[in-house]
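Aim 2 progress update. The chain analyzed this quarter is reproduced below.
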Amino acid sequence: MDFKDHKATCHCGAVELRVDLSDGLNTVQRCDCSFCRRRGAAVVTAPLSGLRVVKGADKLSLYQWNTKAAKHYFCSICGVYTHHQRRLNPNEYGVNAGCLEGVNPAKLGEIEWTDGVNHPSDR
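Predicted C-alpha cells:
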C-alpha cells in the first residue's frame, strides 16, 4: 500500500486529510502520556509538509494543555482524533492510523509504546 497522498478521514467524514507518511506504517506507535493513554490511538508519522486538510478545516477542533506545545486535532462533529503536531518534534505530525483508508490498527501486530510520561521536554 502506497502512503503518499493517502486519504484519512474522521468517522463521520466531515474531515478529510491527505497525508504523505514519512515511512509508511513502519513508524506506528502509541504513547502513554496522560492524554494519549486515554485516547489509545496508534499513530504514524508525517512531516508538516506531508499533511493537508482537504475538507472540513472548519470542523477541526484544537486541544492543548500544560505547555501547549502539542496541538491535538479532532472532528467537532463525531469527536474522532485525526492528528496532532508533536511536542517532541514540532516538524512532524502524528496521524491516527485508524483514520487512514484501508488500515486497521488491530492488524498491525505489536505496536511499540513510547514513554510520554517521562517526556524529554519535561526534564
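The chain has one domain: 6-114. The chain is about 5% helix and 35% strand. These observations will guide the mutagenesis experiments scheduled for the next reporting period.
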